[in-house]
């Protein structure tokens, strides 16, 4: 096992200097058929059911968007918008069932990026990629303050789902709180031509709904974001123990403008990111090329997945802990992808905001490169995982940490599976006026963990991750990140947002016929209980209440949580009575 891990780490280091072949397009239309299939970037949805549409349209102008919506309103069609990247995990982009559903891709609606240097704003078409916008802004001597850590998103998509970085300073870490104006194409009355453009800003009562709209209000056509004079960032990672994490997270957020914390519970390690802006004159030309978003040799991604599958099948917890230890050591050695120039040579790493705020180098390549890819590319049998992201009011997060520590201390090895990935990433976002944003300063915790190839295959120590998940969303009332999570995270979500009724009222005005809704998006937005079927608890389609919701034939039974006793989780046991 040790030799295998050493080889994998060497190959990862070599692959990080190469490019990768680009991710597959999310929409596939087969010749000779009458429909198209939509996938997310992982190639599979939470319920493993396909999303189908009768047709797909690729507009290039705002006028074409108007014509598409007008035609749909006139002919009572259902529409859903999807970007070039389709990086949202839940099914908000899935069209309604039936032959009247059409997908609108913004892949080719990406030509306009207009910068107002004096006014410190940038206006972009909704399909413009985050990286293209950042590069144009930086070339003008300005900086976009907030951005998600992953740059494989469109401007329209990232504000629709509440994408964020990390900051309690200024306007905060959520990109939608830096939005100044939004143009939205919505259906209209016949005497208005069946479609119109709403030009919304802070003076309009619909603005707070449109800032995080989940694609359910209309088609975002243009977005105007506020900018600041260009600046650099200085980043240092401090690997230390987690003994004071519950008392240190808040002061860390207040002390460092872009700070975050990565917590590896099995190793009792917390990595504090000291991340602050510095003047443009500060020496340094660094880059944040986050390890997880670098290109990987396909053989490495396949081997990593195969190793983890073997450990899962043999229930080898110690093997997973060896993987976690090796990966964490490697991340520390290379500063998790920070580069002073071509490589990491020491802290602090200082570079332009546009090169430090987001990353995703595995996106960019020639299609002729067939040996490297993003590690999760669905075509290669590489990494395959869940991503749970919970958003807590800051005042509740300390108790959540203490509960997770109690669960960890029962058997630290049970957390090695999550530490193989990125542990628990802790970030900070500020209170927002968006109806579906956060009403108070909040802490976001994000963790990835192994997903089985088959929906009926249980996972090693899956009860631990399920208990953490239920602690977050049920005990502490955390809100789900709209673009991530399994279905159970959205249970009764409508009761967690003070502005939810305001959002629904805005939807009635902007899309009274529910043209942009589907059974998939309604199920999530309105927090409906998932289907009740055998094995539904294995993939977070339900919270188990009966043994059949788990996998009794494989020794997994529905049992109470170990720390959060009200949790109901699928745990391995030699007997259903233990």
Give your account of this protein's structure.
Helix 6 runs antiparallel to helix 10 and helix 10 runs antiparallel to helix 12. The chain has 578 residues and is an alpha+beta fold. It is built from 14 helices and 27 strands. The strands form eight sheets. It has an eight-stranded antiparallel β-sheet. A five-stranded antiparallel β-sheet has the order 7-8-12-10-11. The model is unreliable at 4-17 (pLDDT under 50).
What is the topological layout?
Elements: H1 2-15, E1 27-29, E2 36-38, E3 51-53, E4 55-57, H2 62-75, E5 78-82, E6 101-105, E7 113-116, E8 121-125, H3 130-139, E9 142-143, H4 155-160, E10 179-187, E11 195-201, H5 207-210, E12 219-226, E13 228-229, E14 232-241, H6 245-255, E15 260-264, E16 269-278, E17 287-288, E18 296-297, H7 298-313, H8 317-333, E19 338-339, E20 349-352, H9 353-356, E21 372-373, E22 385-393, H10 394-410, H11 416-421, E23 424-429, E24 442-450, H12 462-475, E25 479-480, H13 500-510, H14 519-525, E26 556-560, E27 568-572
Parallel strand pairs: 4-6, 5-6
Antiparallel strand pairs: 1-2, 2-3, 7-8, 8-12, 9-13, 10-11, 10-12, 14-16, 14-20, 15-16, 15-23, 17-19, 18-21, 22-24, 22-25, 23-24, 26-27
Helix pairs in contact: 1-8, 6-10, 10-12
